[in-house]
């Protein structure tokens, strides 16, 4: 009976620490942030239906190809990586997959007001303008013209991409993944000057920050790290899951094995505890 009382005390204090003290400490070190908003409600919604054919003409008339390539439409990037890095600080993305991996509301807001969509108003202003020029329209209804451009980007996008391909299009302009021999094409000196600091290699970021942290950080970095130079990426939910999945494959390849070992260890300890108790009962029974 005495042993059960001791066990009860141990279980009580263990539970108190696990469900009481530890969550409280975690909440103080890592304050709660709102979950990812994949509807991008803070940017509003362009409810107009777009025409991809008109959008293709608007895309060209607006001069988007002066910075961006669209390989799928046989429009190569106007500059090589070195020249683009020197001109913009970071290599502008090829837009072949933009319509697949980015949310349409985000894309519309990004075209219309880049600094607001990216949440980098604290970094760029009239004195230091953002490299991406806001779209002021070509003479018609600006919201309709933007809707047409978004529809065009969606029409030329592939049906699906692999996890690594999504990472390359969404993250690789700034970040390396050296564990998988993936490196940014942007010149490091230009990138550091543009961002204020060199963006980190993401090889083990999944283990350094956790999957849960990344799921909110990618969607809106300012929620987790106010004042950061990293822009909001704007991925839709599926694309973000693919990015996190790729980071997990590269940086935490042993996760499944580690989880499986944890269950085995718990089972071993339970069996060992039972055998130890039965052995103790047998020994003390003979003594008494």
Description:
By secondary structure, the protein is an all-alpha fold. It has three domains: 1-32; 33-251, no CATH class; 254-288. It has helices at 2-29, 52-61, 81-88, 98-101, 104-112, 114-118, 142-156, 163-170, 188-195, 205-209, 211-217, 221-224, 237-251, 255-287. The chain starts with a helix and ends with a helix. 27% of the residues are buried. The mean pLDDT is 89.
Question: Which structural traits does this protein have?
Answer:
288 residues; mainly alpha; 3 domains
Q: How confident overall, as mean pLDDT? A: 89
Binned, the helix content reads 55-70%
Gross morphology is elongated
Distance between the termini: 15 Å
Largest sheet: none
H/E element order: HHHHHHHHHHHHHH
Q: Report the strand count.
A: 0
Write a brief structural summary.
The protein has helices at residues 2-29, 52-61, 81-88, 98-101, 104-112, 114-118, 142-156, 163-170, 188-195, 205-209, 211-217, 221-224, 237-251, 255-287.
Write the layout of secondary structure elements.
Elements: H1 2-29, H2 52-61, H3 81-88, H4 98-101, H5 104-112, H6 114-118, H7 142-156, H8 163-170, H9 188-195, H10 205-209, H11 211-217, H12 221-224, H13 237-251, H14 255-287
């Amino acid at each position: 009976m005495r042993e059960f009382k001791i066990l009860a005390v141990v279980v009580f204090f263990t539970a108190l620490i696990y469900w009481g003290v530890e969550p409280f400490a975690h909440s103080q070190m890592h304050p709660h942030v709102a979950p990812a908003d994949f509807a991008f409600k803070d940017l509003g919604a362009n409810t107009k239906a777009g025409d991809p054919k008109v959008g293709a003409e608007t895309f060209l008339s607006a001069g988007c190809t002066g910075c961006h390539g669209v390989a799928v439409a046989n429009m190569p990037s106007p500059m090589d990586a070195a020249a683009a890095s020197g001109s913009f600080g970071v290599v502008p993305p090829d837009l072949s997959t933009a319509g697949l991996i980015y949310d349409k509301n985000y894309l519309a807001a990004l075209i219309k007001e880049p600094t607001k969509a990216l949440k980098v108003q604290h970094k760029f202003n009239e004195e230091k303008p953002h490299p991406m020029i806001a779209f002021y329209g070509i003479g018609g209804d600006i919201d309709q013209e933007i809707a047409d451009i978004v529809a065009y980007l969606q029409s030329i996008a592939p049906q699906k991409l692999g996890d690594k391909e999504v990472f390359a299009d969404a993250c690789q302009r700034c970040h390396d993944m050296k564990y998988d021999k993936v490196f940014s094409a942007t010149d490091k000196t230009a990138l550091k000057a543009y961002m204020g600091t060199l963006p980190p290699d993401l090889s083990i970021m999944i283990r350094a920050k956790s999957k849960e942290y990344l799921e909110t950080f990618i969607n809106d970095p300012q929620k987790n790290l106010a004042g950061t130079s990293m822009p909001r990426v704007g991925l839709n939910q599926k694309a973000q899951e693919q990015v996190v999945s790729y980071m997990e494959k590269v940086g935490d390849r042993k996760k499944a094995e580690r989880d499986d070992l944890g269950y085995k260890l718990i089972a071993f300890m339970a069996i060992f505890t039972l055998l130890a108790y039965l052995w103790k009962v047998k020994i003390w029974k003979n003594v008494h």
